Amino acid sequence: MSKPLCLAKADYFPSGLMPVAIADRAPQQTFPSHIHEFCELVIVWRGNGLHVMNDRPWLITCGDLFYISPEDCHSYESVNELVLDNVIYCPERFRLGLDWSQFLPQEKKAWRLTTRGMALARSVIQQLAQESAKSDRLSRQLTEALFLQLVLILQRHRYAADVAWQLPEGEQLDLLMSAIQGQLAHFDLSDFCLQHQLSERALKQLFRQQTGMTPGQYLRQLRMCKAKFLLRSTPSLIGDVAALCGFEDSNYFSVVFTRETGMTPSAFRQQFEQHRQKKAAAW
Ligand code: RM4
Ligand code: NI
């Protein structure tokens, strides 16, 4: 294999003395495999994409956080309105005399940030962007102090991104079920497994053992339950009910609904209409 591209300090830092710089990527475009002469913190604000680091794929979205060392090789293979900040830094330029290895994790590179952590980090990064663009000594010191503040905030508000495979099986199921329920209209099992680094095959098997159905069947049943509820208790149009339940095509929704319940969506709704009218007439 050919050597990957190596990004040079001189191209990304305004001066040879400044220890930190902010490279905001709004948007981040696809970017080929590369290593760096510097270190990099990546904080994802919005959108999604496929980030590959040292040959491992990560489906990334808001709240993802990566600590990238010079020798880590990474790329952005696909992007979808991906917005992130790269906080790039050169440890040998720090002058405050701190033991930086204490503040920056060595082993674990992929983390997630809480919403609160994102808000706090964002405001420090805004200040960092301003200070690091200047060149006087005080600005360099302030930049270093702000960077310390940032890494401490990240430490306090981050959590491990890829612990799901270490969870006991029961908790893997909880995680899966709450994800299905929470994203009824858009749930995708492969994405879920990629995100949590779980084996799709093993998870399907576990799900089947415990519930007697596949995750796909469970998802379909939940969607049908929601559809019945909406048809029965709201005046929403059938097309809207279909969309809320994850069906882009309302004809296809009608086919599935009829197959599952033995009734078309409008016949199903009709029953309750008649019931309601009779009740109203009786009064
Ligand atoms: C690129 C990409 C790279 C980063 C450089 C500074 O757009 O985000 O990962 O190293 O910027
Ligand atoms: Ni990079």
Bound molecules: beta-L-rhamnopyranose, nickel (II) ion
Report the major sheet: 9 strands, mixed
What is the CATH class designation of the largest domain?
A: Mainly Beta
What is the approximate shape? elongated
Average per-residue pLDDT, rounded, comes to: 90
Distance between the ends: 82 Å
The appropriate CATH architecture of the largest domain is Sandwich
Class derived from helix and strand content: alpha+beta
| SSE topology string | EHEEEEEEEHHEHHHHHHH
CATH topology of the largest domain: Jelly Rolls
Backbone CA Rg: 25 Å
CATH superfamily of the largest domain: Regulatory protein AraC
In short:
This protein has 283 residues and is an alpha+beta fold.
Q: Topology, please?
A:
Blueprint: E1 5-7, H1 9-12, E2 20-25, E3 31-36, E4 39-53, E5 56-61, E6 64-68, E7 74-89, E8 110-113, H2 115-132, H3 137-157, E9 158-160, H4 169-182, H5 189-196, H6 200-211, H7 215-233, H8 238-244, H9 250-261, H10 265-282
Parallel strand pairs: 1-3
Antiparallel strand pairs: 2-7, 3-7, 4-5, 4-6, 4-7, 6-8, 8-9
Protein name: Arabinose operon regulatory protein
Domain HTH araC/xylS-type: 174-271
InterPro entries: AraC-bd, Homeodomain-like_sf, HTH-like, HTH_AraC, HTH_AraC-typ_CS, RhaR_RhaS-like_N, RmlC-like_jellyroll, Tscrpt_reg_AraC-type_HTH
